[in-house]
Amino acid sequence: MSLEHTHFSPSPPTFHPTPYALCPLCTISELSLAGLPPVDPSRAREPALLLPCGHLVGAKCWTLYSLQVPDSEPVCCPLAGCRTPLTFPVCGCAFEPHPLRGKGRRQ
Ligand SMILES: [Zn+2]
Ligand SMILES: [Zn+2]
Ligand SMILES: [Zn+2]
Q1: How far, in Å, from the CA of 88 to the mean position of ligand 3?
Q2: 45: burial class by Cβ within 10 Å (0-12, 13-18, 19+)?
Q3: Per-block average pLDDT, block size 10, for the chain (107 residues)?
Q4: What is the Å distance from ligand 1's center to 70 Cα?
Q5: So where are the chain's domains?
Q6: From 3.30.70, 3.40.1350, 3.30.40, 1.10.30, which CATH number describes the 20-107 domain?
Q7: For the whole model, what pTM was predicted?
Q8: How far is the C-alpha of 96 from the C-alpha of 52, rounded, in Å?
């Protein structure tokens, strides 16, 4: 498990920024997208995580979700109808979703 190896980074999926998105897991929190001000300041906010399948989820809900997945199962995209395994296919290491940041945005 601890052998040195590198991960071929999957190229990020095409990301279509939306000005306003709710966390699909709790459907309560507004996703905090990089550099964008809150649309509804009265709502709770979660940092948005971009999954390799292209879905956005709230970081808090993602943490809760991933902790519930048994060790014997791969962590998959929590969205019904997607369920993309979030592991590297060759070595099986878990893929860590990236928080969206304002830097390095593709033109
Ligand atoms: Zn949430
Ligand atoms: Zn997905
Ligand atoms: Zn690995």
Answers
A1: 6
A2: middle
A3: 72 57 91 80 90 90 92 88 87 80 50
A4: 20
A5: 20-107
A6: 3.30.40
A7: 0.72
A8: 9
